[in-house]
Design a protein that fits this description.
Helix content is 19%, strand content 37%. It is α+β, with helices and mostly antiparallel strands. Strand 3 and strand 4 form a beta hairpin. Helix 2 packs across helix 5.
Length: 277
């Protein structure tokens, strides 16, 4: 049957400079195997399926698939799916707060100025220090000397990130990784007074190769929590991602009065239509 379909570019207001997500609306009745096959067919980093919520506190349910597996949570699919749901006429109970249900639980998404959306920082599934053996492995895969790492943390809020901090954004942009077998994030600061406070890059393994993600909401969320709580960053601030892969992602990190971190960005719909599933 024909189902509404959207493809949304996330963390950008300029088409083709963010990270795309495919969104299938009204996905009730699609079995898991078909969802996975369609996600493999789109060949995007994530494809999502919108369904009625099972939790009475949620406005909708989203299932998030990579080409090879389902994820409990991911950042740019959260913002892109919410953007598509609202654009298709979705009506949240609270006009300024959308509640998304996913495998990781309930995610609260704020409506900010204009059409910008921001999700609240999700809890970590794994945090804390990285053991030295794993850190040596990360450095080897990134092809950087161990002494260039300022700090490292597990930053897993769903996808499995391990994050390393280096001394500068210039060092982040210079990295030329080898083959990775972990999901690795690298962050470094810009000099004060620039348009962004940090540059971030994200690498993950796929079919024996290393893939760089253009703009990564989940990693930005967990790294923001790490940097803020260690005093290395003070919201609000901006992060840039994607330059090495021809994108120009912009992520805003904010904080509300209750000290909840908010990870936001623009989104723009590039494709609409129907898909037969």
């Amino acid at each position: 049957m024909g189902r509404r379909f959207s493809q949304v570019d996330v963390f950008t207001a300029v088409p083709l400079l963010g990270n795309p997500v495919a969104v299938v609306h009204d996905a009730a009745g699609i079995d898991d195997a078909t969802m996975q096959r369609f996600a493999a067919w789109t060949n995007l980093s994530e494809t999502t399926f919108l369904l009625p919520p099972t939790d009475p506190a949620a406005d909708y349910l989203v299932r998030i698939f990579t080409p090879s597996q389902e994820l409990p949570f991911a950042g740019h699919p959260t913002l892109g799916s919410c953007h598509a749901w609202l654009e298709a006429g979705g009506g949240p109970r609270d006009p300024l707060l959308i509640v998304q249900e996913c495998r990781a639980g309930l995610v609260r998404i704020r409506r900010e100025a204009g059409e910008r959306l921001a999700f609240e920082e999700p809890p970590l599934l794994r945090g804390g220090d990285v053991d030295e053996e794993t850190l040596e492995r990360v450095c080897e895969q990134l092809r950087i000397p161990r002494d260039r790492v300022v700090d490292a943390q597990w930053a897993d809020n769903g996808p499995g990130w391990v994050a390393v901090l280096v001394e500068s954004a210039t060092e982040v942009l210079a990295i030329q990784p080898g083959i990775v077998d972990l999901d690795i994030g690298v962050v470094g600061p810009y000099a004060e007074g620039g348009e962004a406070a940090f540059e971030i890059r994200a690498f993950f393994p796929l079919n024996g190769a290393t893939v760089e993600d253009p703009v990564t909401g989940s990693l930005n969320a967990s790294v923001a929590g790490w940097l803020t709580r260690t005093g290395r960053a003070t919201p609000p601030y901006a992060v840039k991602q994607g330059r090495r892969v021809g994108r120009d992602g912009r992520i805003s990190i904010g904080m509300d009065d209750s000290a909840t971190l908010l990870i936001g960005g623009d989104a723009v719909t590039l494709v609409t239509g129907e898909v037969e599933l």
